[in-house]
Amino acid sequence: MSTADQQPKSVRWARWSAVLIVSVIGLAAFVLSFAALRDLAVMAHTPTHLAWLFPVIVDGTIIQATIAVLALADSDERTFFTRVLIAGATVSIGGNIAHALVSGHGALAAILAVIAPAALLLDTHGLAVLLRSRNTSPPEPAAPVVAVEAAESPVPEPISAPNPMPMSSPIPPAPIRPTTPPPVRVVQPFQPPRPVPVAVPSGGN
Fold this sequence. Notes:
Elements: H1 3-6, H2 9-43, H3 53-71, H4 78-102, H5 106-135
Helix pairs in contact: 2-3, 2-4, 2-5, 3-4, 3-5, 4-5
């Protein structure tokens, strides 16, 4: 949804009305200042077909510097264009006063001559402010911040060391009794039996 759709109709109507009125007034002031500066350039022996360039340069510088100052509101380069704007406004107002005095219309005409360039400066600045505020989107409402509690991570319980087993009193070692080795039996080697002599009867009987 665009910025214009988000604004009430009454606000948009008032804004566009202000833009239209400021544009008409600024255009009228530009025409009057343009005519005075052009005549001054002709009096300064500027060729007639080129005299219109003088007010274009002076008043055009005011318009350009005003737009640049608003566009660079947050930049350091704004200082340069602010000085350009002051210089352009000074030249425009001074040229209109000089035109009234040189033309022989007196001090009252010189005072009235200030109105046109001053109105051009103010109306140009006001128009730029209106257009810039229209193009600047309003800040979106901040989303409600939902407090999300962090899930508590289970804290591991400290592992307790197992209770040490009760130390029993040391068992005294059983006394070692000397053992008598069994008697060793000596095995005699096997001897075959001796033959018994047999008596042989003699033949004298």
